[in-house]
């Protein structure tokens, strides 16, 4: 079992590190965005170098003290908060936020793990490149965290998840050794891929301290459209049509359910809705083309025309200016904010095989209707089969009224997803929230292998104790 | 230690499986393309189902008998041949070659691991899709093998390596348990990514029995050009220029050194060379566009014009017909055949950070010139930083003359690659050939973690003994 990071241990650790590396954790390290968990008072370490991270982990390993890796603190599943158990050392990489090197001809940036995601985007932009990972918390989330959770966001359809945007990592392993895997190679078949093992491991197998990130040339022209579709099946047929015409150029394909704009109208009336009457289902599509092509707008117009002919799109608007484009994105990006104002009974970050999406939605809707009176806002990254299927109180009621139903709602949605070959954590990870889901839905051979790997690499279980695996 | 698969064990195993599952291994299972290794006489198992694979592995695990997974037998590093040690059971998946399901709307095909790569390509083509993995041995290599070695080939620049083309796998783990990870999901963050651990593990952590493969819409128009460049630095500048104009549309960017066409002229004069006089360096570039765009040829012409203006390209030809396109590819694809006729002193499948390529080539050339009189054919997938830097005898001499220098040549090339941040196995894997290279060049923390993972998942070391790790 683990020992708590008591004052004697913290003092000893502090003595072996530069002054100011350890301090009492301020409240911000003990809170998380959804307010479900509260961390324990204790010490936070703020190392300035990989060697210091290694020293901290080495001492925690020797003393069997837990290590809680901390990035931007934006995780939604409690992976960054330990509310019980022996007090850990929180290790925040916020002082390791530097750009180590950037190679425009290679489309690679080597950054420290504490760099904020938006900063990485900015560093790329300075050289006419993009780092395409983009998500709501990009102004706060840090590279180490987005890699450890294999974050997704709106550009996955074209550029992949966080793991696909990383060529190499440097990491401190649970015994304090340093894995020097900061390769800038597109191809490297020399043994097991530790990078892919640590990415998505949510800090339970080590702390990522730096990464070689893939950049891409900045697109030269963009076309953005909001299209009304009769139903999710038509949205998927539209995706297939759009991919046939512009595969590799579609950077976003986002589903919006009428509940989203309705919530906006209720709680954020300052966000204008571009389609009237409000359709039941909409898709936000974006194309982004490089400089060797004519403007993106005619390609989008061709997609729209073909889709209308095929009866897949009933109404739609193609942004004619940057301001209109921003307006369309504002609708999509405001939906999670409106959701928070309404207050969800239960939120679900799920994915499904693409062709199962049209059957899933009515099946889950019907099962929920049998359970109670809900409003459902189902939206998200349809191009990736990733839906945020979020369940809200009926109009005029509050989430407090539904507290007794919350676990049943979650189980019903997750059971349905699992039954249809989907995942109960598409892009947020397991953290501490979904440890039970992994046990319930995970393949037994996979679980056994995960436990064997965890025991082999972290025999004392010091790394992010209680996350992912119990 | 392992026990040999003696006649008593083979008889017992045969009894528990359908008649005809086990038989004496024919010579084809005991040979490999480069003729360096010769397998031991013994038994081959030819299971028809995942359950039968599991039963074989379970019994081998219990009896501590080695298991040698066998795909198409095309590996170049001896991963499929055990020439010494206790005789293993060879497990060939050739009877498990079926298409389980195909989902055109999802761009996914679920195939058994024994399917030949070209068959997977054909199955996709029937539905207007492509499975973009493409390599010289595609008519013989099988899906399980290309995944286990994370194969590369000519389309990696656009579509990624084998691992990037696989959404999920089913595999038998070393204890005989079945990992049901055959997901068709673009996003799934539920624990450690076993798929990425088994892909590239070269059969040392289990046997992949089926895979969910990513398909893509077939391109509607293609443009192929062979362009003469002054040197590799210009080739890289051309790549940057081409990506600025057509990022995401470049499906091949292959470097050709004049030695390649010279070898063709000597040994395969039936292959015509399209550029005269023969340049020192050439690049084969291919663009492939979806249906929503005008033809690819004007985009290629724009790249060529800009590159000529910038002094990056001195001469070039854009294929004006499918026959011309095939002629350009024939040059590229015949080079390995000509190489074999010349007979290499030492061949190297290396990768480098892209911007190190121009410095690497003259540095390695100069170091080799100090060692002896060689001809060097340096060609390959420049867009991926992956070169086949192959060293040949001087004109009029044979590889036998150079046998005493072979190890020194290899060490010199690999030392130089390692020193410049590259990899000594870009796309072929380690097999048995490069086990020593991993020990010499591999990161010590990575090696320790690999050994710990291997011991945790395969405590008796039955899976592909002696490959990857000693």
UniProtKB/TrEMBL annotation, chains A, B:
Family named by the database record: Belongs to the FAD-binding oxidoreductase/transferase type 4 family.
PANTHER family given in the database record: BLL6224 PROTEIN (PTHR43716:SF2), D-2-HYDROXYGLUTARATE DEHYDROGENASE, MITOCHONDRIAL (PTHR43716)
Domain FAD-binding PCMH-type: 37-218
Pfam annotation, one family: FAD_binding_4
Molecular function (Gene Ontology), one example: FAD binding
Superkingdom, taxonomy of origin: Bacteria
Official protein name in the record: FAD-binding oxidoreductase
Keywords of this entry: FAD, Flavoprotein
Gene3D superfamilies according to UniProt: 3.30.465.10, 3.30.70.2190, 3.30.70.2740, Uridine Diphospho-n-acetylenolpyruvylglucosamine Reductase, domain 2, Vanillyl-alcohol Oxidase, Chain A, domain 4
Stored SUPFAM superfamilies: FAD-binding/transporter-associated domain-like (SSF56176), FAD-linked oxidases, C-terminal domain (SSF55103)
Example of a GO biological process term: respiratory electron transport chain
Cofactor(s) needed by this chain: FAD
